[in-house]
Amino acid sequence: MSAMARNELIMWGIGLTELEAQAIRHAARGRARLATWSGDTLPQAEDLDRDEPFLVLATWSAWGRASQAVPVLEGVTRAVILSEDADAETVQNATASGADAAINTPLEQDSLTAVIERAISVRRLYDDIYRMTQEIVLERELLSRKNEQLKFINGFLARTAESMDPVELLGIAQAELSKLVDISALHACIWGPQDDAAFEAELFLAENISASARQSWCSLLLESAASLSSRKLKDYRIVQLPAHGRIVRPPSKGRTLILPLKAAGDVFGCIAVAGSINYSLGRDQVELMHSAVSHLGLALRNAILFSEARNEADYDSLTMIHNRRAFERRLKEEIVRHQRYGHPMSLLMLDIDRFKPINDSYGHLAGDAVLAAVARTIRNAVRTCDYPARYGGEEFAVILPQTSGVQASVLAERLRHEIAGLDFFEEGAHFRITASIGIADIAPDSPHITAPQLIRRSDRALYGAKHQGRNQVVVAPYENECPSIAAMH
């Protein structure tokens, strides 16, 4: 432990006689301890580091060697002891060689006390300056760190303001949070309002995740959701996040962080961050992570509210399925996804047969009941990833991602059969309906196709079903195939 660390003041005396040493100790009045060295034995660098003397007194005969052992140092006063008959030239030489003070023998108490007092003042001044410098350096480091943190948060805010799409926001969050910690994957779970006793959740999982890893992540997210919401799970659906190139492994202890998503004090979701190594976060990282996730929660809540408002505008008020505008937008998105990943997809177009006579015979309320019943039948028959819509009038459309023409035909046959089995009663009359269905699909290796082209192909298939007698399912051939149409009964 150094002298400064133990708050002890030490003087060094080099080449002193015993009487001179006693005089110096007496003049110090117990305020400092004197360590003496002979003129032949000089202190070493480790002695200097250990004692950190504030005052060095050396006789003129030992001054040359003492000056080499104790060079000019900040906060250290160097005094030379001269003989009684030392002339002005000697004093000048001593000062020129680095002496801060010169004392003549015999040593007088007043002179010694003045030198010691001045040396203590210099040391205290130096200590104050040193502490102030350290504080300034520390404050600069803290300011620099705060500036970096502010820069990160501002960048995070700017990026999350770029989108109102939850999928895009989660991708942005992964990219930005990767600047703080190692992230191999980011998943999320978002659920419904707190006033529901049970809740429906959306799980956002990476596209390139294996089946076993997907199951593990689903379990972890659902358990976290149940714990954070204190409610029972009613249902959930999976939303795919774009892959980021890294292998997504199952969650493991120490490498997974679960962080709640909050807005207006309510927890409405959580994110799960996975790393390739065990997480050991510093205080700054933890604070920045929580701050970023807090902003992410607000951005996601706004995106959800925007999506809900858009969905209200995108739904048909009678049938409670998507309208044509929403359908056309979604079809373009699914075709882009098909072209990116090469998955098959199909488009199903359904038209109620002889719908006008129903309105003419039973009235428009009966026609509305038929439309609502057909929409409900379609909605109950399709998967959560499928996209049913009212295309216009009595015509409906269903986008079927990752579905081949053969698979779409099976679904269409089931729909045709269920619609034909519906019973309607109006003013004591009983009637039934049928539907014609046309299907167009895109194979994984098919050439580029646009949304209008796919709609035209399914429309032609629907026309073929009508032409063949209605209540039919027809799959459109590919453009380079024979134009004959195959009907399924």
From TrEMBL:
Signal peptide: none annotated. InterPro entries: CheY-like_superfamily, Diguanylate_Cyclase, GAF-like_dom_sf, GGDEF_dom, Nucleotide_cyclase, Rev_trsase/Diguanyl_cyclase. It catalyses: 2 GTP = 3',3'-c-di-GMP + 2 diphosphate. It is an enzyme of class 2 (transferase). This is diguanylate cyclase. The lineage of its organism: Bacteria, Pseudomonadati, Thermodesulfobacteriota, Desulfovibrionia, Desulfovibrionales. PROSITE patterns: GGDEF. It comes from the Bacteria. It comes from Oceanidesulfovibrio marinus. Its EC number is 2.7.7.65. Residues 343-478 form the GGDEF domain. Transmembrane segments: none annotated.
